[in-house]
Amino acid sequence: MNIKGLVIGETCTGTADTLTLTGSYALESGLDTIEIADAYADGAVIPMMLLASDGITRISGQFVFNSTAGTLTRNDFLNWNGTVRNEVFGSNITLPAGTHQILVGVDEYTLGFESFNDPGIGSTLGVICPDNVITMAGDTNTEASEAAYFSPAVYASPFAFNRIAIRIETAGAALSTIEAGIYRCADSTVFGSKSGLPGKLIAKATFDATVSGTQLVSVSPQILPPGRYWTALWTEDTTVTVKRSEQRSHSGAAGMWAFNNNGASALRITGQTELPSDVTAETFAARQSPRGFVVGLAYVP
Fold this sequence. Notes:
Radius of gyration: 20 Å
Number of helices: 1
Strand order of the largest sheet: 1-2-6-5-4-9
Helix content: under 10%
Distance between the termini: 21 Å
């Protein structure tokens, strides 16, 4: 019996507007994807992302499913051929020959535009950043070593991820590391003192802070439901800087700074040798820095 995973996706072939579906593919977890016919009816308009056979060309769009023919008709929202990024709806680029991979359930809002501008991402399908991150520019550093920082993150749609990503703008000293992760909001009673603050760790990863650029590190595959979360950062070297948001919705807990309308501040707990597994009982301090640091999530088949 072939047990399928919770991720919808298929391989396909074709170079033009019509793609022929060729079946499920194996996930990193060892399970298989759910085929599109098992999840959608004929004529369905489906948001999806495609990684072409060359490992470079990517598409995000809404494709129309023909269950009789076993095909998809493309309507690209965004595409990238390794050189040119095109955001004209329906302007479909020619794909290379070979077998492509499709991942269903992501659209232009969760495509992770940063990935298209950074060849260091490699063959990932796209880095998903929180929906309350509007634009990214500049960098930010932590105020103190061995402290954990938390920034509000909102996701409007569910998605699968098995990588955590950050972009290091300024590398640190030899042997320095950074941890990045994502936390649930803490459980509490209505109007409780911890309502909406960081709670239990969902996933974290350790990054080499001595190397600049975008890094993706593997974590256990899982589905993240829509909702409010907290991304987190820990470092032992305050000279390291990471990518930050230029603007973001100030959706954090009461008492957080809104620094010059240029990025929400962070909540901080000190005296940490790593990102803790549960911070529900911690007392947080609001800090101006690091403001608006960006932690991404990605799914790599």
